[in-house]
Amino acid sequence: MARIAVVIVCVLTFCPWIVCAHDMIVPDWRGQDGTTRQEWSFANDSNPALPDFIINPYGDASAAITLGDMASGWLPELPGYGTQTGFWDLGGGGSIVIDLDNRAEALAYKEIWIQTTYYLDMSQPPIVEVFDAMLLDSETYIVEDLGMGGWYLDLSKWRIEPNPPCEQITLTSDMMWGSVIDQIVVDTICVPEPMSIGLWILGGLTLLKKRRQCK
Fold it and tell me: What is the 3-state secondary structure (H, E, C) of 102-138?
């Protein structure tokens, strides 16, 4: 079930290449073996857009933007839209399709966390879908409250079984009111097969037994 949380955005002292402005929810497994991280802030009108930041030892990632009805396209900024800059007004029925290379081994499953920052007034949140995946959970956070409207962040968590070598993530704007997208952050992790986990645990227990016998 979706949960609403109010988040106070603090001024971070980290370098911009380490922490993204709306990278609010960091998975506890980020940076571990088998993980990837991609961030799009859409600082320009490149289409397809390459990530502004990427750690992906398995390949590349890109985001193809398709504009819908009454779309304004890429905008550097707009009066009344707060401090956010560089975003896509997709119009009605527009989309952003992200193609993401990933670990190719036949592992048990993959988890995908997607953070999407969007403007909410008449325009609506985009519909996020991951091909062949099951939605596990979703949460909504406030990024910047502007009174009659504001910027929000949706976090959605997905699982694909078994692990595929690549993913396709689609964000589709509201057919009537459209969607305005400021930023997308995607984290993935490939989880080993149950047999591999069992062997790892068995190996650890065997090593522990040997150490006790040596004492």
Answer: CCCCCCCEEEEEEEEEEEECCCCCCEEEECCCEEEEE
- Torsion sign over Cα 12, 183, 53, 3: positive
Domain ranges of the chain: 3-11+22-214
Q: How far apart are CA 184 and CA 20, in angstroms?
A: 10
Q: Do residues 119 and 203 lie in contact, with contact meaning Cβ atoms separated by under 8 Å? A: no
Please state whether 82 falls in left (phi above 0), alpha (psi between -120 and 50) or beta: left
What is the number of other CB atoms lying within 10 angstroms of the CB of residue 57? 11
Instruction: Kindly report the CATH number that applies to the domain delimited by 3-11+22-214.
Output: 2.60.120
Residue 190: pLDDT over 90: yes
- What are the residues facing 154 on neighbouring strands? 116, 140
**152 near 3, Cβ under 8 Å?**
no
Cα–Cα distance for residue pair 65/48, rounded to 1 Å? 6
Q: Which residue has the tokens 């502004």?
A: 52
The helix (run of H) or strand (run of E) holding residue 159 is: strand 150-160
* Averaged pLDDT for residues 12-27: 59
pLDDT tens per residue, range 110-136? 999 999 999 999 999 999 999 999 999
pTM, 2 dp: 0.82
Q: Are 138 and 111 in contact (CB under 8 A)?
A: no
Is residue 17 very low, low, confident or very high in pLDDT (cuts 50, 70, 90)? very low
